[in-house]
TrEMBL record, chain A:
It holds the Pfam family PAP2_3. SMART domains: acidPPc. It is a multi-pass membrane protein. The lineage of its organism: Archaea, Methanobacteriati, Methanobacteriota, Stenosarchaea group, Halobacteria. PANTHER family: PA-PHOSPHATASE RELATED-FAMILY PROTEIN DDB_G0268928, PTHR31310. InterPro entries: Aur1/Ipt1 (IPR026841), IPC_Synthase-Related (IPR052185), PAP2/HPO (IPR000326), PAP2/HPO_sf (IPR036938). Residues 149-257 form the Phosphatidic acid phosphatase type 2/haloperoxidase domain. This is PAP2 superfamily protein. The keyword Transmembrane applies. Keywords: Membrane, Transmembrane, Transmembrane helix. The chain crosses the membrane at residues 6-26, 46-64, 104-127, 139-158, 216-236. CDD domains: PAP2_Aur1_like.
From TrEMBL, chain B:
This is Bacterial extracellular solute-binding protein, family 5 middle. It comes from the Archaea. GO terms for biological process: peptide transport. Belongs to the bacterial solute-binding protein 5 family. SUPFAM superfamilies: Periplasmic binding protein-like II (SSF53850). The keyword Transport applies. Residues 262-582 form the Solute-binding protein family domain. Residues 550-559 have a biased composition (Gly residues). GO terms for molecular function: peptide transmembrane transporter activity. The keyword Magnesium does not apply.
Length: 282, 588
């Protein structure tokens, strides 16, 4: 099983790498890349506070996932039925448009397209001489994960596929994709949809940086929309999750735009003091 | 307002006031009569099931019920929960309205004694989780069938089945025909009710070297979606046990069901004298930690199952499982190291069932008789014996624990000290010599599809679980994968919590159970892989018994899965219920 999971992961690395190269060729010009190489260290140092925060949140997420799930069953609200009552069989209706081609497309978008959508803007904003966007996006990603985790703790909900409302097209066609999703998530974490919120966050930033990367805006628009639809088409998320995801994206965008500078200043201001404290110890 | 002066004026005023009071009193009466009574509210029930990932069948059944219940004006909520949570809610906390699930299975109808006898309505576990009480109607035939020696047992059993139908403490849906994915290039002989009994893994045979080619044959690898076995191996923790298969490999009973009859297992023989059963244990039995297994361990086990605090003081904390069997034993006396005498309160046929519970080592479980405390608070109703995860199990079984990785795998190894290894008395011929492998590994997979792929690729020898109907199709199409199909006693059922109105009313439950279209579910929920049934005893029954027209059958047209609202309403009106203007079934 571990070997199979490794195969899936390798395929993601391979496909996403190819997509990143293509995206770079399409969207980023050579001059920017040369500048990036020359300026690499400074930019990394500048981005460190934001990226560090993101990494911390991701690590906490992966370390506490199982405990958080158990805790969630103890203290959280079971809202599957409420969601179902609210929206009924909407996702089943989405699935009536099912064709083999669409299943292949949306499965690929859900797994590969999504990862590319999240990684490429980091690279693209890294290549901008003005680094602000990178910091904003990273902080927005962090906000998505952090708020999402709290929601997952508070709300226990199964997706439409688990309530027998929808078919599970992707797992039926690509059983091994299940190894991946079960390794990174639990089936009761559907509200809100992080696939949706992160994709929409990327799209909002693509709009913000449309002058620097007009082509990326077009690509992001198509991909983000596809990811959002795929979550429902594949029977994984409810419409309610998607709407909540869009809400979370908006909040995270706001936090990213307004919080990035403050966070960097806070950390860069605090760091010298912290390091001095450590050094001055006997 | 000016007050009129003089006698007349005062009188007029008084009479006026009295009139007003009288009038308002009349008004108040009417007001009180109308308002001061409970407003009828629509009946709302929540149906608890596993999520489709864990088993797609219960969710499908719940959708069918949601539809027919809606036709009857009942509001339905669906509540998917994990297996552990489901059984915790149902078996330990009695926190449910309706649930849909699979019974662990049974070998003898006497299991109903534990399931439905009123004496267990306050006990946790598979002892009457429904809070069902019917003292003469159910308890009497339950007692009679235990003691009947003159051929009257079958009469009492028929009465039981009839009472279940009439009173509907549970509604049996169907007996699934269970299939597991296997490959037979290394091991063959998947018989012995292998999905229900540990014997399934002990009766396997090894292919000879030529047949299996270059494959190593020392490890039997099984795929499972049950991750609970990687967290807990306590045979008394009901919420972690589905069918006691893994713990059945680690722990031995005195006698085991083999091909329908109870055969001596840890015992080498037994004999009856009146109601006393004399049992002689095999020679040289030992626990996995090397200590001797003696009659003291056996006597300890039966007393522990009665009360896991192992004292005569209050509180009493009975084990949440095996109670119907352990209560058959009135007393156990260890005559010497190998001989025991049981006083049995039942016919010989039923009485032998007492010997099928797992024997636990006294030197380990004696330490677990204290009440549990969490953060310094003593809990009054739980002992360590019930909450210990027992992930270092000391059993006496043909396999012993080797290692476990939570949510990933569980490894057992062959116990070379086990009596089966050197069995020479001709008993248990199918299992003599012990398991034909060194190691048995349960590998956790997040989906059955992954397990079928694993079997196809040769990474696994079989699935440890029955496949869902959709996966049976996949396995049929997969090359190199065979299906081993067997009937099972682990029936799907709807359980009603009879502690609260209106589910406490047998008429109401019976009406609900008549909204169950078993024929529709056979084709739609089980995709044909099941036999519909009413009875919690026989697998199946007369082929037409669940059809409409039967007094307990579906009220709609059989096989359609739908019922006309008028028909459904009439059903509940007959049971004494009323509807409001909106067509909602209401109760006060």
């Amino acid at each position: 099983m571990a070997l199979e999971l490794l195969t899936v992961l390798l395929s993601i690395v391979a496909v996403v790498s190819v997509l990143l190269v293509l995206g770079t060729i399409l969207c980023i010009d050579r001059g920017q890349l040369r500048e990036l190489r020359a300026d690499l260290r400074t930019r990394l140092r500048l981005a460190a506070p934001a990226i560090g925060l993101l990494v911390v949140v991701l690590v906490i997420n992966s370390l506490t996932r199982r405990t958080a799930q158990r805790l969630s069953w103890l203290i959280g609200f079971e809202i599957t039925d409420q969601i179902y009552r609210l929206e009924g069989a909407f996702v089943a209706w989405v699935q009536t448009f099912q064709t083999t081609e669409l299943t292949v497309y949306f499965s690929a978008v859900y797994v590969y397209g999504y990862v590319f959508l999240l990684v490429f803007p980091l690279l693209a904003y890294f290549a901008l001489s003005e680094q602000r966007s990178l910091h904003e996006l990273t902080v927005a990603y962090t906000a998505n994960y952090a708020i999402g985790l709290v929601c997952y703790l508070l709300f226990v909900a199964y997706g439409p596929r688990n309530l027998g409302i929808a078919e599970q097209f992707m797992y039926d066609v690509y059983p091994s994709s299940r190894l991946l999703t079960s390794a990174v998530n639990t089936p009761t974490n559907v509200f809100p949809s992080l696939h949706t919120s992160l994709s929409v966050t990327v799209l909002l930033f693509a709009w913000r940086t449309r002058e620097a990367y007009p082509r990326w805006l077009a690509i992001a628009a198509v991909l983000a929309t596809s990811v959002v639809i795929s979550t429902m088409y594949l029977g994984i998320h409810w419409l309610t999750d998607v709407i909540a995801g869009i809400g979370l994206a908006s909040a995270s965008y706001w936090i990213g735009v307004h919080g990035a500078d403050r966070w960097r200043e806070l950390v860069t201001g605090a760091l010298p003091r912290i390091t001095t404290t450590f050094r001055s110890r006997p | 307002m000016t007050v009129p002066t003089g006698p007349i004026g005062r009188r007029a005023l008084l009479s006026g006031a009295a009139g007003a009071l009288t009038a308002s009193a009349g008004c108040l009466n009417r007001f009180q009569a109308s308002v001061d009574r409970d407003t009828p509210e629509q009946v709302s029930v929540s149906i608890m099931t596993l999520p489709a990932d864990e088993d797609p069948v219960p969710v499908r059944i719940s959708h069918h019920l949601a539809e027919t219940f809606a036709a009857a004006g009942i509001d339905v909520g669906l509540q998917p929960v994990t297996a552990e949570k489901l059984w915790r809610n149902v078996l330990l906390n009695q926190d449910f309205d309706l649930y849909i699930g699979q019974h662990p299975g049974h070998y003898d109808p006497d299991y109903l004694y534990g399931l439905l006898h009123s004496r267990f309505s306050e006990e946790p576990g598979w002892q009457n989780p429904f809070g069902y009480v019917n003292v003469p109607g159910m308890d009497d035939p339950l007692e009679t069938q235990r003691r009947a020696t003159d051929g009257t047992r079958s009469g009492a059993l028929s009465a039981l089945v009839e009472a279940v139908r009439e009173e509907a403490p549970i509604a049996v849906v169907a007996y699934p025909e269970e299939s597991r994915a296997i490959r037979t290039d290394r091991y063959f002989g998947w018989g012995y009710r292998s999905l229900e009994s540990p014997l399934g893994y002990l009766g396997l045979q090894e292919r000879n070297a030529a047949g299996r080619g270059s494959r190593a044959a020392d490890t039997l690898r099984l795929g499972t979606m049950n991750r609970r076995v990687t967290h807990n191996l306590n045979p008394l923790a009901v919420e972690y046990r589905d069918r006691w298969i893994v713990t059945g490999l680690l722990y031995d009973p005195i006698g085991r069901y083999v091909d329908g009859g109870i055969e001596p297992w840890l015992a080498d023989n037994w004999s009856w004298g009146d109601d006393r059963l004399r049992v002689r244990l095999r020679e040289g039995l030992s626990w996995h930690d090397g200590q001797n297994l003696t009659t003291a361990d056996v006597a300890f086990t039966y007393r522990l199952l009665r009360d896991t605090t192992y004292t005569d003081e209050n509180p009493t904390v009975p084990a949440p499982c095996f109670r119907a069997r352990s209560l058959l034993v009135e007393a156990v006396e260890a005559i010497d190291d190998r001989t025991l005498e049981f006083s049995i309160d039942a016919s010989r046929e039923v009485g032998l069932r007492a010997l099928t519970v797992p024997v636990l080592p006294r030197h380990v479980w004696e330490e677990r008789t204290g009440l549990t405390s969490i953060a310094g608070f003593d809990l009054d109703n739980v002992t360590e014996a019930l909450v210990a995860d027992n992930m270092d199990p000391v059993g006496s079984g043909p396999l012993r624990f080797e290692a476990a990785t939570p949510d990933a795998r569980l490894e057992l190894v062959r116990n070379d000290e086990h009596f089966l290894v050197d069995l020479s008395d001709g008993s248990l011929p199918a299992f003599a010599g012990g398991p034909p492998y060194q190691r048995l590994v349960f590998v956790y997979s997040p989906s059955e599809a992954n397990i079928v792929e694993g079997v196809q690729a040769g990474d696994l020898d079989a699935s440890a679980i029955a496949l869902a109907p959709t996966e049976i199709r996949r396995a049929e199409e997969a090359s190199e994968v065979e299906l081993a199909t067997e009937p099972t006693s682990a029936y799907y059922h709807v359980g009603f919590n009879g502690r609260n109105a209106p589910l406490s009313n047998p008429r109401f439950r019976r009406a609900l159970s008549r909204l169950l279209d078993r024929e529709f579910l056979r084709t739609e929920a089980f995709e044909g892989h099941a036999t519909p049934a009413f009875s919690p005893i026989a697998v199946g029954g007369p082929s037409d018994e669940w059809h409409s027209g039967h007094g307990a059958g579906f009220v709609g047209e059989n096989g359609t899965g739908t019922v006309e609202p008028e028909v459904a309403h009439e059903l509940f009106r007959e049971a004494g219920y009323i509807y409001n203007e909106a067509g909602e079934l209401v109760v006060r």
